[in-house]
């Protein structure tokens, strides 16, 4: 089938590349000529393990192309996916649909035959019907259907998530649209991955409800971690005991410095706003958002305690600033709260992150970037494990402790243990919920 993918951000590029690997002919569209030039040169503008090789293979096979010409890409396409950004709108917390509606109007003007216009972007309930209206206004005679196809990709594991999904959710209004979407996802259907077909509104809501629930699990265990510290319990043992219950499960029960990223902060805010607009307050979600911010600030106080109550004059090495490992994404990362607090308090901050420099250099002014943990730790007063990159899971702790001015560690991902740290020569060690 012929597919046009409008937007080459994280969702659009991963989806377009993976669809081409299914055997479809995919043309990815972006208004930014520099991005298209980069993609045509075989360079991937985001960091996602395996994406560069997969992209190169399908370009070489002639199934994947890139262009700034939306009209040419849409002409003759069986499906047109909208995968543009929906950032949180300033002032009200709602998802900004400016790019979605602009894309819908352009698609309508470019269509020359029947196509399914598929919203891949995360959008509030009711948006797909607005997309249909925008297309009809732009092209009253257009022959099309709309569909909702929310993404559930984890940064750092997006290709595997796309190729081996827990489920694919498709919201449609007609059998004709359902048939097109079925043909697109046929490679997954043949391998018995579940394809759930529903109405438009339910598909839109599934995305928000799923992300809000996962954010709730993370925030819940972070609150339990704070209580564990007060009562002498170990949150790692508590979460393991909870996760053994089949009704709960062990995923997203790892205590840490709070959630971040492109999805959870934006989607919880949007769901809360949708609830307000329909007079059904999302009290749990609203509380999750508040508690998550408090968790980040609680981490700052942990670090302050390890610095004898003040950051001024201290040297702090921070390991990891992206919101999670295996990505270069800094959006809403806990580091954006924690590192500025260190710098603002007068600390000299050294940062190490395998992929964080590209975005972090602008977002974290006043820090010094290092290539490895050992150079960053030399002469430091505190080392902070903030993002659990694999490179930080097997550090030579005696070497680090021996090189520091005062050997103190804040393990905000519970990678190590107090016993290991103290045996390695650290004078002080603090973790989360232990």
Structure description:
By secondary structure, this protein is of the alpha/beta class. The chain folds into two domains: 2-198, Rossmann fold; 233-434, Rossmann fold (3-Layer(aba) Sandwich), CATH 3.40.50. It is built from 18 helices and 14 strands. It has helices at 10-21, 33-40, 51-60, 70-74, 98-110, 127-138, 158-163, 175-184, 186-189, 200-231, 235-243, 264-277, 283-306, 335-344, 357-363, 373-377, 397-403, 418-423, and strands at 2-6, 25-29, 64-67, 79-82, 115-119, 144-148, 168-172, 195-198, 315-319, 348-352, 367-369, 382-385, 408-411, 428-430. The strands form two sheets. It has an eight-stranded mixed sheet, sandwiched between helices. Strands 11-10-9-12-13-14 form a six-stranded parallel sheet. The model has no long low-confidence stretch (mean pLDDT 96).
Q: What are the segments in which pLDDT stays under 50 over at least 5 consecutive residues?
A: none
Query: What is the count of helical runs?
Result: 18
Top-tier CATH class of the largest domain: Alpha Beta
Structural class: alpha/beta
Tell me roughly what share of residues is in helical segments. Answer: 40-55%
Rg calc: 24 Å
Total strands: the figure is 14
Number of domains: 2
Biggest sheet: strand arrangement: 3-2-1-4-5-6-7-8
Give the second-level CATH assignment, the architecture of the largest domain. Answer: 3-Layer(aba) Sandwich
Could you report the average pLDDT, rounded to the nearest whole number?
Answer: 96
Distance between the termini: 54 Å
Task: Name the CATH superfamily classification of the largest domain.
Answer: NAD(P)-binding Rossmann-like Domain
CATH fold-level label of the largest domain: Rossmann fold
The major sheet is characterized as: 8 strands, mixed
What amount of the residues lies in strands? Answer: 5-15%
Q: Which geometry do the CA atoms define?
A: elongated
GO molecular function, one term: UDP-glucose 6-dehydrogenase activity
Keywords: NAD, Oxidoreductase
EC number: 1.1.1.22
Protein name: UDP-glucose 6-dehydrogenase
């Amino acid at each position: 089938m012929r597919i046009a993918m409008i937007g080459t951000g994280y969702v659009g590029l991963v989806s377009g590349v993976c669809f081409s690997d299914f055997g479809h002919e995919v043309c990815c569209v972006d208004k930014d000529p520099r991005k298209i030039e980069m993609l045509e040169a075989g360079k991937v503008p985001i960091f996602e393990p395996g994406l560069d090789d997969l992209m190169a293979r399908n370009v070489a096979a002639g199934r994947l192309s890139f262009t700034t010409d939306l009209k040419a890409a849409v002409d003759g396409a069986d499906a047109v996916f909208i995968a543009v950004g929906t950032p949180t709108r300033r002032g009200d917390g709602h998802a900004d649909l400016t790019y979605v509606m602009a894309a819908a109007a352009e698609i309508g003007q470019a269509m020359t035959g029947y196509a399914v216009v598929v919203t891949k972007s995360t959008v509030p309930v009711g948006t797909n019907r607005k997309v249909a209206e925008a297309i009809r206004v732009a092209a009253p005679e257009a022959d099309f259907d709309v569909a909702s196809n929310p993404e559930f990709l984890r940064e750092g594991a997006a290709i595997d998530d796309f190729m081996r999904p827990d489920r694919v959710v498709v919201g449609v209004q007609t059998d004709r649209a359902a048939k097109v979407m079925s043909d697109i996802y046929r490679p997954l259907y043949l391998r018995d991955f579940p394809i759930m077909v529903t109405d438009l509104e339910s598909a839109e809501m599934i995305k928000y409800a799923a992300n809000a629930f996962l954010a709730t699990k993370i925030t819940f265990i972070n609150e339990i971690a704070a209580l564990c510290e007060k009562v002498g319990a170990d949150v790692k043992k508590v979460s393991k005991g909870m996760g053994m219950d089949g009704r709960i499960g062990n995923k997203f029960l790892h205590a840490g410095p709070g959630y971040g990223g492109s999805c959870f902060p934006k989607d919880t805010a949007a769901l809360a706003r949708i609830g307000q607009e329909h007079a059904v307050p999302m009290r749990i979600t609203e509380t999750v958002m508040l508690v998550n911010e408090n968790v980040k600030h609680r981490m700052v106080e942990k670090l302050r305690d390890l610095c004898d109550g003040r950051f001024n004059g201290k040297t702090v090495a921070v390991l990891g600033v992206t919101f999670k490992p295996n990505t270069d994404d800094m959006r809403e990362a806990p580091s954006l709260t924690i590192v500025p607090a260190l710098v603002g308090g007068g600390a000299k901050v050294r940062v190490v992150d395998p992929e964080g420099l590209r975005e972090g250099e602008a977002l974290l002014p006043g820090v010094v970037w290092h290539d490895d943990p050992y150079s960053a730790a030399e002469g430091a007063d505190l080392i902070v494990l903030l993002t659990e990159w694999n490179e930080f899971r097997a550090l030579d702790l005696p070497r680090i402790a021996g090189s520091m001015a005062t050997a103190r560690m804040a393990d905000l991902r519970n990678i190590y243990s107090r016993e290991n740290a103290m045996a390695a020569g650290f004078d002080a060690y603090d973790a989360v919920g232990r």
